[in-house]
Design goal:
By secondary structure, this protein is an alpha+beta fold. It is built from six helices and twelve strands. The chain has two domains: about 130 residues, Sandwich (Jelly Rolls), CATH 2.60.120.10; about 60 residues, Winged helix-like DNA-binding domain superfamily/Winged helix DNA-binding domain (Arc Repressor Mutant, subunit A), CATH 1.10.10. The strands form three sheets. The chain has a four-stranded antiparallel sheet. Helix 1 crosses helix 3, helix 2 crosses helix 3 and helix 5 packs across helix 6. The chain is elongated, with a radius of gyration of 19 Å.
Length: about 210
């Protein structure tokens, strides 16, 4: 039986090998990298920047599955030959390695580390989708906004802030809410002196209340 620790340690090597196999592609901010419903022929590995995964209905309402960070695989769900199950958009300028499925399948046949890498990715994606569904069902919009601000903020010299500017529409998309609702929440938090907004983005002045 394979040692799980040995298999886990092999994942970075397998990922690096896939990156070397891939074609490097740069995308501008708000570029559509994958469109839901398209036939997939390749997967992507994010090397620089950030992307968001989401699904959209015919009325433009979105269900967000989260942001991805560098060294994350996406686009693997159509490997079996089906259509893309979600869209992927860059939220900042980014660099990706694109790997054709045909090449990946050869690597899977040659090396079990690639299979373990893909399984790990699918498990992580499933957990993320489950967490998104739980948040939408069990948490209020305000609670989801607070979670997002806490998760995305960084601290420098005693000041907490979001390292990149997010529009109200982007925040709405990320938490699965309307732009009007986000606008109201940010306005109330600003009046309460919990946050400060400027051209550079959002600064968190003090701990955000659990409920509003």
């Amino acid at each position: 039986m394979n040692d799980p620790e040995v298999a886990s340690a092999a994942v970075p090597d397998a990922l690096d090998a896939l990156i070397r196999d891939g074609v490097l592609r740069r995308y501008k901010k708000h570029a559509m990298i994958i469109s839901e419903g398209d036939v997939g022929t390749s997967l992507f590995i994010l090397l620089e920047g950030a992307v968001r995964i989401y699904s959209q209905d015919e009325h433009g309402r979105e269900l967000n599955f989260g942001l991805l960070e560098p060294r994350t695989i996406f686009g693997e769900m159509a490997l079996e030959g089906g259509t893309r199950t979600a869209s992927v958009e860059s939220v900042s300028p980014c660099l990706c390695a694109e790997v054709p499925y045909a090449l990946l399948k050869r690597r899977l046949a040659e090396n079990p580390d690639f299979a373990f890498l893909l399984i790990s990715t699918l498990i992580g994606r499933s957990r993320s989708a489950t967490e998104s569904a739980k948040n939408l069902a069990l948490k209020t919009v305000y609670q989801r906004v607070v979670e997002l601000l806490d998760k995305e903020s960084v601290q420098e010299d005693g000041v907490r802030f979001l390292p990149r500017k997010m529009s109200q529409q982007e925040l709405a998309n990320l938490v699965g809410a309307s732009r009007d609702m986000i606008s109201k929440i940010l306005k109330d938090l600003t009046i309460g002196k919990y946050i400060e907004t400027s051209d550079k983005g959002i600064t968190i002045l003090k701990n955000l209340p659990n409920r509003w």
